[in-house]
Amino acid sequence: MVEGRINPDKATGGPRVYQRQDGTHAASYEIVAERVVFLGRGDGGEGGAGAEAYQGAPSEPESVVEDEIPF
């Protein structure tokens, strides 16, 4: 389970739209996770409701170069 926020494009308020190297267009949002809990599979494996959560320190988002798409 991930708790956090979605950061829209500041200029449009929607997803960031860009053109891929192959010429097709795509859109993306920046996702900032503030809490991550690894849930179990429900079959008695590790995780589940008793699993400890990772809570990242709240901080300002790292600056991203506009031409760099992480995928």
Give a short summary of the structure.
The protein is mainly beta and 71 residues long. The two termini are 22 Å apart.
Describe the structure.
- It is a single chain.
- This protein has 71 residues and is mostly beta strands.
- It has one domain (2-55).
- Helices cover 0% and strands 35% of the residues.
- The protein has no helices and five strands.
- It has a three-stranded antiparallel β-sheet with strand order 1-4-5, with no helix packed on it.
Number of helices: 0
The portion of residues assigned to helices is under 10%
- Overall spatial form: elongated
Let me know the average pLDDT: 76
Provide the structure class: mainly beta
> What count of structural domains?
1
Distance between the termini: 22 Å
Profile the largest sheet. 3 strands, antiparallel
Number of strands: 5
Assembly state of the chains shown: single chain
Strand order of the largest sheet: 1-4-5
The secondary-structure element order is: EEEEE
Radius of gyration: 17 Å
Spans of 5+ residues with little confidence (pLDDT < 50)? none
